[in-house]
Design goal:
single chain; 636 residues; alpha/beta; eight-stranded mixed beta sheet; two-stranded antiparallel sheet; 26 helices
């Protein structure tokens, strides 16, 4: 009797894949989109304004009925942190009219803000932690059966050649991507917007994945080849030192053993050395020539090398000690390409404890490793190409196969393009995308004004398209702000109030004195190159191609004195934007998730909190997995 197709599907599914985390229903995601959009529709005007026009348009008087001191006091570091930690009243997230009392936040007549605390709590109510649509990385890894995976024989330490933020991001995202790849039994990863290749290199070397990093900048690809050349130049010396250190430590252990254990020690020494060689081989046979994109120019040069003095542990338990130049040898053991490895150390090894049989065994292992090296699939290849939603990946990756599509902090439209590619390309089985630079997204209503057509970055889902939803560049810029960082008092990461103040007062001068309302010219980073406000104005006027000789120094300083006591208004106004930023980001992320829920070929989709938001503010990944294609036969 034949089994039904449904039974066969269930049988294959239960034996090949583990169950995924509970999925937020499409209806719930759509409801959250409507609720957040409804809230933002009322409060978004605060974020749609431009700081440049703050004084010329009288934005504080127009939008806020409170003193700037009161706003800043309520939203200061400690008080803001208390507001973020304060539990919210549990009520259903339904339509905004039922869940948000705007009359307690804005004046009914003037529509100006009258209650900053209620405003902050409402924004918190519509932020990600309160929406119930996000899962943790731990939950996702557990579902992918990654929690009990064995440790690596040699584990790469990223914090010696990456900054703390990038190291944090790469390690956590790599673990998730590897879990997804193993879940499907995939070996190929396509990294879009790979930049300097940190994620791609780590995936290829630590997880033995075949990675193609695609970036639009040819400079990054050229830099990869140069960095790889430098790494290979120093390879053999560091490999030799690493083996010498391991050998010295195990021999030291042997000296401490009783005489009767010498023979046993000999065998242990041979085993450890062979284990170390094999471990190093397996860890380094993951990159092809011209494939490393680490910023090694920042780590070492041809003539001088300086790396943080840290120890790295091998599986055998021995530690590789930094040499007299503070260079941890195991760093190079971990990151150099396979074709640079010289595993046959018979010319270097003069250890009397090794018997002839052991030498022969090691020689055979070396020959086998060299033979298999040419067949090594686990590579990282940097490629240069500009990616859009219409890109044909097979034109870029010649040996494209079933793969995972990833992107770590892909700028602007590249994040939505990544999701669109995932949905239309059958060989892409999964996607893990962390976007950033929301201000660079294209919006349908903005581009329609220019008469251009195409796949816009926002909105993506059907509901927001039907509603003709529009954020605007200024609001999307606010979505890039880091509320958590401001709340913990990281002053150096807060808004650059003085530079914004300079620009706003300059706009008053340009409009009042020169009579110029709009200009297509950019000032650029004049503030960082200026010694004072006067110097800033002079340099900016030249950039705007205005005759700076027409205005005197004294008049410029009069403008400065007129507005300097109102700098706190600008600071308070920007803090209101900081509080609303997470809500705007949520709408963008929910729009992408809702789009995936609308696709028929997606088996699971969700938002995963990947990073610590203080270390990496853009901390949410959009993850989706395709439905499996099952080949069934009817048995009679």
């Amino acid at each position: 009797m034949s089994r039904s197709v449904h039974e066969l599907r269930e049988a294959v599914s239960s034996t090949s894949l583990h169950p995924l985390p509970p999925e937020t229903p499409a209806e719930t995601v759509a409801a959250r989109v409507r609720a957040v959009a409804g809230f933002l529709q009322r409060v978004l005007p605060l974020c749609q304004t431009h700081t440049v026009e703050f004084y010329t348009r009288g934005l504080w008087e127009k939008m806020v009925a409170l003193s700037p001191e009161m706003v800043l006091e309520t939203l200061s570091g400690e008080r803001l942190q208390h507001l973020l930690d304060e539990p919210l009243l549990q009520r259903p997230l339904e339509e905004p009219a039922d869940s948000c009392d705007f009359s307690n936040i804005f004046c009914a007549n003037s529509e100006r803000l009258i209650n900053v605390r209620a405003f902050a709590l409402a924004a918190k109510y519509y932020s990600m932690p309160n929406l119930g649509v996000c899962i943790s990385l731990e939950q996702m890894l557990e579902a992918l059966n990654r929690k009990q995976q064995p440790k690596f024989d040699v584990e790469m330490k990223t914090d010696d050649f990456m900054k703390n933020k990038k190291s944090h991001e790469v390690q956590l995202m790599s673990e998730l991507v590897d879990g997804i790849a193993k879940y499907y039994g995939l070996k190929q990863v396509i990294d879009l917007g790979s930049g300097k290749g940190y994620l791609s290199s780590f995936l290829s070397m630590q997880y033995n994945l075949k990675v193609y990093g695609i970036d639009s900048s040819n400079t990054n690809t050229h830099g990869a080849n140069e960095r790889n050349r430098k790494l290979k130049k120093h390879w053999r010396a560091y490999q030799s030192r690493a083996r010498a250190n391991v050998r010295g430590q195990v021999l030291e252990e042997a000296k401490e053993r009783p005489e009767q254990d010498k023979e046993k020690c000999k065998a242990n020494i041979s085993g450890k050395l062979l284990s170390t060689n094999n471990s190093l081989q397996s860890q380094t046979q993951v990159a092809a020539p011209d494939s490393i994109l680490f910023e090694t120019a920042d780590v070492f040069t041809d003539s001088e090398m300086s790396i943080t003095n840290k120890q790295y542990e091998l599986h055998s338990g021995a530690q590789l000690q930094p040499d007299e130049n503070n260079i941890p040898e195991n760093m190079f053991l971990n990151i150099l390409p396979a074709d640079a490895v010289e595993t046959d150390c018979s010319s270097q090894s003069k250890c009397r404890e090794l018997c002839e049989e052991e030498k022969e065994r090691r020689k055979m292992a070396s020959l086998k490793a060299k033979a298999s090296r040419s067949k090594e699939d686990n590579i990282y290849s940097p490629l240069t190409s500009y990616i859009t939603a219409e890109t044909e990946l097979r034109d870029i990756v010649a040996d494209l196969e079933d793969c995972v599509l990833v992107g770590l902090h892909t700028c602007g439209d590249l994040a939505p393009s990544t999701l669109r590619l995932f949905t239309v390309k059958p060989e892409i089985k999964a996607v893990c995308s962390v976007g950033c630079c929301y201000h660079l997204l294209s919006e349908e209503l903005e581009t329609l004004k220019d008469g251009t057509q195409g796949a816009w970055g926002f909105p993506m889902c059907q509901y927001l398209k039907e509603e003709s939803w529009f954020c605007g560049r200024n609001a999307r810029m606010a979505a890039c702000l880091a509320l958590e960082r401001v709340a913990v008092g990281q002053m150096f990461l807060q808004l650059p109030t003085e530079s914004l103040f300079y620009r706003a007062v300059l706009q008053v001068i340009v409009e009042e004195f020169y009579g110029v309302k709009r200009s297509d010219r950019n000032i650029g980073k004049v503030y960082s190159k200026s010694s004072s406000f006067l110097d800033y104005v002079r340099k900016s006027l030249k950039k705007l191609e205005l005759d700076e000789s027409e205005i005197s120094d004294s008049l410029i300083m009069e403008y400065f004195e007129k507005y300097k006591h109102r700098m706190n208004e600008l600071e308070a106004f920007n803090m209101l934007k900081v509080v609303l930023g997470p809500c705007i980001e949520v709408l963008i992320l929910l729009d992408r998730l809702c789009y995936l829920k609308e696709q028929d070929n997606v088996a699971w989709s969700g938002l995963v909190k990947l990073f610590d938001p203080i270390k990496s503010p853009r901390c949410y990944a959009v993850v989706a997995l395709k439905k499996q294609t099952f080949h069934t036969q009817t048995n009679c």
